[in-house]
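Q: I'm teaching a short session on how sequence maps to structure, and I want students to see two examples side by side rather than one. Could you give me a first protein with its sequence written out and its structure tokens following it? Keep the formatting plain so it prints cleanly on a handout.
A: Of course. Example one:
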Amino acid sequence: MDVGPVWAATMRPADPRGLHRSAVRLRQGSDPIMHSLLEALTIDRVYLQGEHSGALAGEQALRAAGVRVITVPGAGHNVMFDNPDAFAAAVAGQF
């Protein structure tokens, strides 16, 4: 993963043990998987991803379930830092 100085700065105050625990749990995943949970919700849903994050696995299934999938230009994993205006517009439903 290619991260920039802004992301690194956000991790500086984090407890390394907490980061490790989060990483281990994320790697283990959930049952059911997060995509299935998101697909099953009956509220308005949006999945934001950065343009530099690559292809989204399961995108077609998310869209078929009514999830709006928005790819934010010029952004990576930290969409809100990389392109804050587009992030705010997408969250407000204006993207």
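Q: Perfect. Now a second example for contrast.
A: Example two:
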Amino acid sequence: MKHADVTFLSGGVECHAWHYTGEGDALATDAGRPVVVMAHGLAGTKDSGLEPFAEALAAVGLDVLAFDYRGFGSSAGEPRQTVSMAGQLEDYRAAMSAAARLPGVDPRRLVLWGVSLAGGHVLAAAAHRDDVAAVVALTPLVDGVAAGRHALAFHKPTAMLRSTVVGLQSKVGRPRMMPVVARPGELGCLTLEGSMESYLAIAGPTWRNEVDATVGLELGNHRPGKAAADVRAPLLVQIADFDRSAPPQAAAKAAFAARAEVRHYPCDHFDVYAGTAWHDAVVAHQVLFLRRVLAP
């Protein structure tokens, strides 16, 4: 499916996005089609596994705007490869405004879609909004403190301490980069057995295996799950029950607070992407949910 290149400004910086036009008018009203705003997780880029989701949603009648955060992928912005939770949320909201201006869409029926880190961003972005018609949070990371405790079950404390030290050095001195994914025992954000292979399997041409080491410090104060109760739109939370990266119990707690529809999958964090056993079920549940809550 073809997409159009779109740019929009966030914080004065040009962000790059792909616009997929929805097929047919099954979900359209006189005001236009619903439009999905789609973003990736930790250091992710739109060309790294998002396209199959975007194409599936466009095929049932939803426009989709999939974008890169500032400093990542095809978007502009300096410094590169630096995760700012506040900055990414600002980018997400700017993308919502850009999506509302797309031709043929209903600006009052935004659909927020996020995976992993963005699965938390969508909760904060949707809170207290009346122009959001639905939210999809896939394997969401909603609580940085819980994620830290969860990581202790799978990582050696010395490895986590090493990452923290490098993060502090980057924060107070010259920026230091670390790999997004690395092999067990190596320095990196995601070093669990199989994580490197899983991420590289979806990595697109603009993705880079490096991120500012301050990302761990950013995660420590990241609590978007607290906004779940303020989401007014129907919410679908898709939880990987054996998720070693985003704690499933924290996602379930946020879903309960939001009275969300919840789907569980007996898999790990990366097992929801195209080419895995659970991808088709994950997409099918998103389509069922969105068709139901967005029906004209």
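Q: What should students look for in example two?
A: Point them to this: The first helix runs from residue 51 to 59. Also worth mentioning: The two ends are 25 Å apart (CA to CA).
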